[in-house]
Amino acid sequence: MFTRVVEVRAKKDKLSQFTNTLNDKIMPLLREQPGFVDIITLVSTSEPERMVSISFWESEAAAQRYNEQHYPRIREMITDLTESSPRVQTYNVDTSTTHRIAQGKAA
User: Fold this and answer.
1) Euclidean distance between CA atoms 26 and 70, whole angstroms
2) pLDDT at 104
3) Which pTM does this prediction carry?
4) For residue 18, what are the domain limits?
5) Distance (Å, rounded) from C-alpha 74 to C-alpha 22?
6) How many domains does the chain have?
7) How far apart are CA 40 and CA 57, in angstroms?
8) Cα dihedral angle (43, 46, 50, 52), rounded to 10 degrees?
9) CATH assignment of the domain containing 22
């Protein structure tokens, strides 16, 4: 199991539009990707424009394929809605108690 952690800060006056884009355009695209398992999006309690998304993938290769083929389009979708470019980091999942994530790790 592999993860992509994306941290982004939406423009305060575009927060609603950013959230709508995330839910209406980005999430459906992610669900269609081969090897995609799940996503968790965190919103800061003290800075609601600051968000972190953790997407889970069956393999590093699946995440890399998404990164190369679809992520540039997603960045274009949010460029006018964010303060700066999203920060992306990648990790291997070591342990998890979440059922779907654990299933993907076994795959």
Assistant:
1) 10
2) 59
3) 0.84
4) 2-106
5) 9
6) 1
7) 12
8) -40
9) 3.30.70.100
